[in-house]
Amino acid sequence: MVRDSLRVVPAGSVDVTAPVTIDGLSYVDPGDPAMPMYRVIANNRSPVALRDLMIAPVRSGYIGDGRQPDPALVPASGAEAVPGVAVDQVYLPVRDGVARCQLYRPIGSGETPLPVIVYYHGGGFTVGSSEDCDFLARKLADTNDALVVSANYRSAPEFMFPVPLDDAFDVYRWVTEHAAELDGDPTHVVVAGDSAGSNFAAAIPLRARDEGVRVPDCVVMLGAFADFQFERWPSFLALAPRGIVYDMAFAGFIRGAYVGTQRWDHPWVSPIDGDLAGYPLTVVVAGTHDPIVDSARAFADRIRAAGGRTVDYFPEGMPHGFYFFPGVHPEEDIAYRVVAEALRDVFGR
User: pTM of this prediction?
Assistant: First the structure.
């Protein structure tokens, strides 16, 4: 039974994952000699910083702007597509407060300790929330008879690397030590994510090893994002200039927004460049029409070259995010079956 104290923000703490609006001028010393001009610019536009100006329309239209002229093109909701899953909400400790997380558990499982999947939503490190990935979390819980902890985290550009990863890692670390408090089985813990969330999932084993924390039993990457050095991959050069879901302009923006001045080949930023010796079993999923598919393939290759194991699924013609909407592509359902088959052994079934 999840204790009530986890369902509220503790007194004196703060939910760091709650959306915040940060004035671009807050980063500038009030005594800066350039401040008079910055105030003139702020009088003319809001947001004042270009990074905030550029991300605003993406955030307002990421999932949709409310226009749905053709009802036939509206996919089922997560609850409609996967109804047999109960959803709860908790606030788990992270270094600056708490992070809001949603819990997904198959109905009928009672309080039986279930294996745990810590899941990170996508959104290019800059947008999105656990609610946006409701279908994905439900599907993972249902097809694996598992407890899914769908974690929120702070977003760039307001919070740059390593802050979003800090949130993701802190939630994972808490779960490894306290899974039983969520009616989870601490002996079976997996990390998973889609797109940007898959980047966090891939970085978790490397950071866990570096910091002496239990390494996850498996990594699941949907829309596998293992490398910020986009331009070295032929698929990116061929598909990104005019891409729809992932394109060159957005890729460049999120790299600057999230990675900032950090090296692009830092292993917690681009896990493909990490020391992959002892890396856990990894499920790598990406469509062949995804601009980052070549880096996904290469990540799987490097894991195997380091002695690890991978389960790969690269469906022909599929774009980035083909697994996101229920019933749009048959390959979506196959992807979750591939994951479930891989996790069956991990969970000792």
Answer: 0.95
